[in-house]
């Protein structure tokens, strides 16, 4: 099943008063100002006003920021995780069938390295 989503990788952009998620390939001049990002961003969430004595500021809820970062991290890691799972499943099925691994361009060490890289990418901070 082909997915027609925006190209990866995605970027989480947290600025004073708002959060936007958009393709990292977007030209910088198109993302200078997040005002109006709700029309071009994959996801956009405005912050809220915080009135502190005589000053009005905008703030972003820490949970909203964490959610946006998690969405980007999960989407950006999707391909590597899916491929690592497919490769592991292939080898596990071969082992189950006859306890021998067929000739392949990938060794078990390669598969383990890919799985470790996938886990590292998922656990990485943005």
Describe this structure in words.
The structure is a single chain. The chain is α+β, with helices and mostly antiparallel strands and 126 residues long. The chain has one domain (10-123). The protein is built from 2 helices and 5 strands, in the order E-E-E-E-E-H-H. The strands form 2 sheets. Strands 1-2-3 form a 3-stranded antiparallel beta sheet, with helices on one face. The chain has a two-stranded antiparallel sheet with strand order 4-5.
How much is the average pLDDT? Answer: 81
What is the count of distinct domains? 1
Structural class: alpha+beta
Count of DSSP helices? 2
Profile the largest sheet: 3 strands, antiparallel
The tally of beta strands, per DSSP, is 5
Coarse morphology: elongated
Low-confidence stretches: none
Strands ordered across the widest β-sheet = 1-2-3
Beta content:
15-25%
Q: Roughly how many Å apart are the termini?
A: 28 Å
Radius of gyration: 21 Å
Q: What sequence of helices (H) and strands (E) makes up the elements?
A: EEEEEHH
Fraction in helix: 40-55%
Output the keywords.
21% strand; 126 residues; 3-stranded antiparallel sheet; two-stranded antiparallel sheet; single chain; alpha+beta
How is the secondary structure organized here?
Layout: E1 10-15, E2 18-23, E3 43-46, E4 48-52, E5 55-59, H1 62-98, H2 108-123
Antiparallel strand pairs: 1-2, 2-3, 4-5
Helix pairs in contact: 1-2
Question: How is this structure best summarized?
Answer:
With 126 residues, this protein is an alpha+beta fold. It has helices at 62-98, 108-123, and strands at residues 10-15, 18-23, 43-46, 48-52, 55-59.
């Amino acid at each position: 099943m082909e997915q027609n989503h925006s190209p990866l990788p995605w970027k989480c952009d947290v600025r004073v008063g708002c959060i936007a998620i958009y393709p990292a390939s977007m030209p910088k001049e198109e993302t200078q100002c997040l005002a109006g990002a709700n029309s071009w961003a994959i996801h956009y969430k405005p912050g809220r006003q915080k009135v502190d004595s005589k000053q009005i500021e905008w703030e972003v809820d820490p949970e909203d920021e964490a959610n946006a970062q998690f969405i980007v991290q999960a989407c950006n890691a999707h391909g590597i995780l899916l491929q690592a799972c497919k490769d592991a499943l292939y080898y596990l099925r071969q082992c189950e069938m006859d306890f021998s691994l067929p000739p392949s361009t990938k060794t078990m060490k390669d598969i383990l390295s890919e799985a470790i890289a996938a886990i590292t990418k998922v656990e990485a901070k943005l």
